[in-house]
C-alpha cells in the first residue's frame, strides 16, 4: 500500500488506467488500478476491524457458540457498526479498481460486482469469494466499461451513455455473469473442500493442522478460509483439536504482516506501517481480514508468506493436540479460557507469526517481475 502520489493513484477526473502503452505500461496500469482499490479499502478494514475488536474485548463473553456479545449491550451496536464497515470493504476494493480503469461509469458496476462476490448466498455458496473475487470483479467491470465506451452511438444518445446506459448494461452483465458463471465453481469448491477435509480427520494431526493452516491463511475470509473455519467449528463438540489448529492459524496473517512492518520498516510506507499496527490489534482478536490490505497489494509475496505461517501454526497446534472449545480464534480465546493447552497454543501462534513475518520480509526484499 503506497501513497497516492507514489503509486500513481487516480484522482477524480484523471484518465483511466487501462489506456495505451505496451506490455510494461499495461502492467503498470494494472498495478495502479489495484493500488487505487486498496488505498480506498484500507480505512474500511481498519475502522471496521478495530470496532469489532474493541466490542469483543469490552463486551464479549465466551460461550459454546464462540465469543458472543449480549443483544442488549451497547457493545453489540458497536460490533454491528464494525461489521457494516467490513461488509463495505470488498465492494469498495472492487469499485475503485474499476474506477481507476474506466472512470465514473465503472464505479457502480465495480461496487455491485464486489458486493455479489462477497455474498455467496446469491450463487448458492456458503461462502463468498472474498477479496480475491473483488479484485476479479473490479478488473472485469473496468475493462467491460472500457469496451462499451468504444461502441459508436448516435450523437443524441452520447449524453446519457456514461450516467445511465453504460452503468446499467455493465452492472447487469457483470452481475449475471458472476452469479450464473463464476459463482458455480465457488459453490463447487466449497462443497468439495469440505468433503476432502472430512477424509483427512483420521490421518495425522500435524498433516490436518498444516492443511487447515494453509486454507485459513490463503484468502482470509474467502471461500477457502471459510471452508476450513466452518469445518473446525462444526467439530468443536466432538473433536476440539481441529478447531484448535484453526484457532492458532487464524491470527497469523495479520500478526505476521504487522510484525513485518516493525522489523523491516523501510520496506513499507507510512500508510502500511499504520495499517500494520491495526493488523496487530486485529490479529490478537482473531480477525484474519486485518491482513487483506497487504495481500491485495502484493498477492504474489504476501499470500505465500501467510500460508507458510498458517501451516506452521497449524502443525504445531495439531502435534500438541491443542483444543479450542469455541468457534473463534486468536490469542483472545486463550485468555478467555476457551483453549486447552494454552502454552502450546501461544507457541503455535508465535511460530506462525514469526514465519509469516520473516517470509514476507524475505519475499519483499527480492526483486521480482511480479508484485
UniProtKB/TrEMBL annotation:
PTS EIIC type-2 domain location: 30-371
Spans through the membrane: 40-60, 81-102, 129-148, 160-182, 202-221, 275-296, 342-366
Subcellular location: Cell inner membrane
PROSITE patterns xref list: PTS_EIIC_TYPE_2 (PS51104)
Membrane topology category: Multi-pass membrane protein
Residue ranges, annotated region (Disordered): 1-23
Keywords (A to Z) from UniProt: Cell membrane, Membrane, Phosphotransferase system, Sugar transport, Transmembrane, Transmembrane helix, Transport
Superkingdom of the source species: Bacteria
GO biological process: phosphoenolpyruvate-dependent sugar phosphotransferase system
Name this polypeptide is given: PTS fructose transporter subunit IIC
Amino acid at each position: 500500500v503506497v501513497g497516492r502520489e507514489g503509486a500513481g493513484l487516480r484522482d477524480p477526473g484523471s484518465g483511466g488506467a487501462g489506456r495505451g502503452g505496451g506490455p510494461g505500461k499495461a502492467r503498470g496500469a494494472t498495478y495502479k488500478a489495484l493500488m487505487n482499490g486498496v488505498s480506498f479499502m484500507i480505512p474500511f478494514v481498519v475502522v471496521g476491524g478495530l470496532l469489532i475488536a474493541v466490542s469483543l474485548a469490552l463486551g464479549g463473553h465466551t460461550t459454546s457458540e464462540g465469543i458472543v456479545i449480549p443483544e442488549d449491550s451497547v457493545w453489540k451496536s458497536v460490533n454491528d457498526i464494525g461489521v457494516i464497515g467490513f461488509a463495505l470493504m470488498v465492494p469498495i476494493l472492487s469499485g475503485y479498481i474499476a474506477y481507476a480503469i474506466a472512470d465514473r461509469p465503472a464505479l457502480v458496476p465495480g461496487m455491485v460486482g464486489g458486493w455479489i462476490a462477497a455474498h455467496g448466498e446469491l450463487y448458492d455458496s456458503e461462502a463468498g469469494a472474498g477479496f480475491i473475487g473483488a479484485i476479479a470483479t473490479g478488473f472485469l467491470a473496468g475493462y467491460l466499461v472500457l469496451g462499451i465506451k468504444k461502441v459508436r452511438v448516435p450523437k443524441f444518445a452520447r449524453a446519457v451513455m456514461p450516467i445511465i446506459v453504460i452503468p446499467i448494461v455493465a452492472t447487469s452483465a457483470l452481475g449475471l455473469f458472476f452469479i450464473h458463471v463464476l459463482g458455480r465453481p465457488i459453490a463447487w469448491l466449497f462443497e468439495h473442500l469440505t468433503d476432502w477435509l472430512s477424509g483427512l480427520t483420521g490421518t495425522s494431526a500435524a498433516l490436518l493442522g498444516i492443511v487447515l493452516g494453509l486454507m485459513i491463511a490463503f484468502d482470509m475470509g474467502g471461500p477457502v478460509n471459510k471452508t476450513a473455519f466452518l469445518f473446525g467449528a462444526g467439530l468443536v463438540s466432538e473433536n476440539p483439536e481441529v478447531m484448535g489448529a484453526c484457532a492458532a492459524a487464524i491470527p497469523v496473517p495479520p500478526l505476521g504482516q504487522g510484525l513485518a512492518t516493525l522489523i523491516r520498516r523501510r520496506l513499507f510506507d507510512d500508510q502500511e506501517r499504520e495499517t500494520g499496527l491495526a493488523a496487530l490489534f486485529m490479529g490478537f482478536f482473531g480477525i484474519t481480514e486485518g491482513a487483506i490490505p497487504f495481500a491485495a497489494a502484493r498477492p504474489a509475496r504476501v499470500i505465500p508468506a501467510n500460508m507458510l505461517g498458517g501451516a506452521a501454526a497449524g502443525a504445531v497446534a495439531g502435534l500438541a493436540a491443542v483444543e479450542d472449545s469455541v468457534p473463534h480464534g486468536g490469542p483472545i480465546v486463550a485468555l478467555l479460557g476457551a483453549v486447552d493447552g494454552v502454552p502450546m497454543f501461544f507457541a503455535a501462534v508465535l511460530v506462525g507469526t514469526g514465519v509469516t513475518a520473516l517470509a514476507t520480509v524475505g519475499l519483499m526484499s527480492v526483486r521480482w517481475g511480479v508484485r
